[in-house]
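@channel anyone free to eyeball this complex?
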Amino acid sequence: MSPVKRLSTSSGLLADTQYRSMLASYGDFGAMQRIGYSSLGATATNVTFSSIPQNFQDLFIVCFMQCATANATYANAQFNLNGDSNANYSYTQLLGNGTSAFSSRSSNGGSGWISYISSTSGVFAVAVVHILNYANTSTNKTILTRGSYGTRDTSTTYVAESNVNLWRNTAAINSINIFGSNGGFTAGSTFAIYGIKASAA
Amino acid sequence: MTMTFIAGQSVGAGGAGSPLAAFTNIPQTFTHLQLRLFTRGNSSGTGAAVHRLWFNGDYNANYTYHQLRGNGSSAGAEGAGSQSAGTTIGYLPPGGTTANCFGIIICDILDYTNTNKYKVQRSINGWDANGSGYATLESGLWMSTNAITQIEVRSDDNFAQYSRVDLYGINVSDQTGA
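replying in thread with the prediction:
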């Protein structure tokens, strides 16, 4: 298919911008396509992506988060899948605090772990979440996350982390609920979920 | 940015031997490559299986790696230089651990066609089996300026059913998407 070129917007003429196809738009990156997006205009305790399409191979979530309670200690973001808050989650963590690296583990918990998040004014944490084979009904679900945040106060702990979660359930994932501790997330926090195909376009 | 599926290999009933995949004739039209692995060992052992990459059929001592890992109780690190054992990209769960638990590896190979640079890979990896597992960060180097045309993915163990590896190409574009 020939590429499509955009020549103008309502603001006037542009230098021509070429798109791969008529379907190419913000959120379409070839095999990776955005399937949901939430930008908080006010404080919220959680964000839920439901009715997740089952026609992708993997899911990829990008989170930009700040704790709703200023200067809260150890604010964090966690998740539930398919509305399950039973003791079906476990995770292994690798974290660094600017002085040393350490590792910890949780077993038989009621939620999965995304990352610690900032509660300092103006500072947001960035986290990504990888879920491969989310629609496979023969395997338990593995969720890989990576997060980081920092502050300008040199006496405050910086955190960089990588975590792996297990949801002991072979059901296909059709919803993800992301929630924060200490009142949830501030306005300006954003969450985007992408589907990744494992086939030629 | 555009992400394009190039090729993939999945494991059917009965499992499969190592290598999991050998990607050949890799198109040279992308900027970066990404490997996405979802795997589990097929033996009855309980030791984690190490996954490695080799490029362009080079089995000489041209590989290095560094690893930062957490086992749930402590963090550790290791590395090696000038080895022939490929570059390490992560651990995956052995067949003797909790059933139906798989690990994930996301491995990025940047500027794979650049003939002025050694080739670098960066991986995030982890598996958890509700009381065991690893979270790791890996980096590795192939000390060759050749463009990458072939990637071989091997493990210390054979692969269980439902294991898979997919190769993607990533292009950087100027699309605004507005």
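from a first look: The radius of gyration of chain A is 19 Å.
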